[in-house]
Amino acid sequence: MVQAISTSSCCNILFSKSHRSTSPHSLHRFNHYSPSFAHRISTGVQRKAVELPLPETVTQQVQNKEQRKTQFALENLTSWLLKQELAGNIDAELTIVLSSISLACKQIASLLQRSSIINLTGGQGTINVQGEDQKKLDVISNELFCNCLRSSGRTGIIASEEEDIPVAVEETYSGNYIVVFDPIDGSANIDTALTTGSIFGIYGPDEQCLIDLDDTSTLDQAREKCIINVCQPGRNLLVAGYCLYSSSVVFTISLGKGVFAFTLDPTYGEFVLTHENIKIPESGKIYSFNEGNYDLWDDKLKNYLDHLRQPGSNGKPYSGRYIGCLVGEIHRMLLRGGIYGNPKNKNSKNGNLRLLYECAPMSFLIEQAGGTAIDGVQRILDIVPEQVHQRTPIFIGSPDEVQKLQKYLA
Question: Which parts of the sequence belong to the Fructose-1-6-bisphosphatase class I N-terminal domain (predicted)?
Fold first, then answer.
C-alpha cells in the first residue's frame, strides 16, 4: 500500500490515523518508546519511492488520451472554414458563400444518385447560350446553385455557364462576391452514371458592379457593367474549387494557400477533410486527350502525342485516360500526376472549354498544388477574358509534363 501513494500523503495518513485512534497519553507513550519511529518510516518511504519505477504521470495520460482521440477525430468543412476565418485567410462573408456552395453540391450529388429513379436523365429540350443541348440536371443544378447563392445574402453577381449573361443578385445585403460556376461539368456522362462534377470560382466585390436598382440606368446598362466586372483574369480569384460526383463525392478547394479535399460522409451528411495540402507529382505517366480529334490537330501536337505513345526507359509508353469530364481529369491528376489537354483544332479555333467557368478555376487549383496550366503560349491565369463565355485551349498538369509539351509546341 505504501508503494501506491506518495511520501507526503503516506505520512499524513499515518499521523492522522494515530491522532484519531489514540489519546494524548497513549500518543505520548508512543513517542516516548519510539522517538524516531516516524522519522525512520518517513525516510524509509522516501528512499523506497525513489527506488521504485514512477507510475505514468497525469500529463502523460492526458497526452495519450489526446492521441487516441486524434485517430478517430474528423474535421468537417464547416469547422475547417471557421479555422481559416480565425487565421485571417477568409472573412465571415466568404465563409457563408462557401457553405452555400457546399450545400448546393450536396443537393446535386443526391439528385445524381437518384437520377434514373426519379426520371432526371435525358435532355431538357432546350439549348444553352453555347448552342449545346441541355440535360434536365443541367437546368436543375443551375437553379440549385443560384438559389443557394442568393439565400446566402453575400453574393453580388452570379455568372453561370448555363446563363446568357451574369445576373445581379437583388437579395444581397453584404459581401457582394462574384461567383462564377459550371453547375454540371461532363453532363453527357449523366445518363450512363459516369463521372461528373461542379466547378466554381469566387472573385472579390467591385464597386463598378454594385447595382442600385433605384438608379436611373436601364437594366441593360446595369447588366453591361456586370459583364465588364466579371471578366477578370484568373489570377484575381480569391477561391476556386470543384465537387466530384463519382464513387465518392469529393469537395476540393483552394483559398490561395494550398489545395484541400473533403469527402462526403453519407453517414453524417458532412464533407470530411481527407486530403490535406495536396501536391501534384512533378511528373506522371498518364495523358488525357480526346484522340478522336487527332487528325484535326496541328503537326507539332501530333508529334508530341506520338512521342508519348513510344515506350520509355522502362519499356512502357504513357497510359491514355480520357473521362470526358474536366473535374474527373483534374482530380486524378492532382493525386497521380500527368497531363490533360483540350487543344484548338481545325473545327474549334479557340478550343472547347470556357475560360471563366472551367479553365481559370482549375488552373488556379493546379498552380496552388504546384502544377502548370497554359493555353499553348501563355499562362491561363494571365488571360483577360473579353467575353463572358470565351473559350480557350488548355494544357494542364504536372510541371515536368507541361514543360515537355512546350518544347514540342515551340
Answer: 83-276
